[in-house]
Amino acid sequence: MGKHEDQRAELEVRLAAWVLAQGLSKTSLRQLAAGIGTSDRMLLYYFRDKAELLEVVLGRIAEAMTLSLTAALPLGQQFAPAALYARVAELAASAELRPYMDRWGEMAAAAARAEQPFAAIADAITQGFQFWVESRLAISDDAVRRDMASLLIVMIDGGALLEPLDGGRVSARARKMMQALLETIQ
After folding, report:
1. Which residue of 5, 31, 48, 61 pairs with 1 in a disulfide if CB–CB is 3.0 to 4.6 A?
2. What does the pLDDT look like over 77-110, one tens digit per residue?
3. Smallest Cα–Cα separation from 50: which of 35, 63, 32?
4. Could you give the CA distance from residue 119 to residue 78 in angstroms, rounded to a whole number?
5. Contacts of 103 (CB under 8 A, 6+ apart)
6. Axis-axis angle for helices 81-92, 169-184 (nearest 10)
């Protein structure tokens, strides 16, 4: 890599860490620049516009979360739906992944409001997670595997979104019930 690419990559890492810690409410170019100790003009030197910057930064955050999930569930291993659900739901509710799930919830809310560039970015990340889950499900029928992956994503993300509420009791009960339901279809 050249010097320009190295400096941009360093900015991407710093921005991703800042957004992961601070959230999406502080994503004006000035706030992002101040958060990592640079100027908004410097950010625009390395990124075409705010949309590109957010796409890259949120992509890095999603990639880091995917790497954490992949460390626990490597590619090539396949699981019955109940087993995969149990492992991923537990990870999604963990303190390690809490910041990622918080950002995902913020991004999903912004996408639901059709805020750009969040809607397009969330769609791309969703497709990536869909593939990730599908590739780990031991279901031979392609359509059933796709639909089961979608169900698991909705249940895992919904549970993680609600985890901070009611002391986590609602999410814990839902995980237990989902686990029992999945075990009946094996």
Report:
1. 5
2. 999 999 999 999 999 989 999 999 999 999 999 9
3. 32
4. 30
5. 19, 20, 23, 24, 58, 61
6. 170
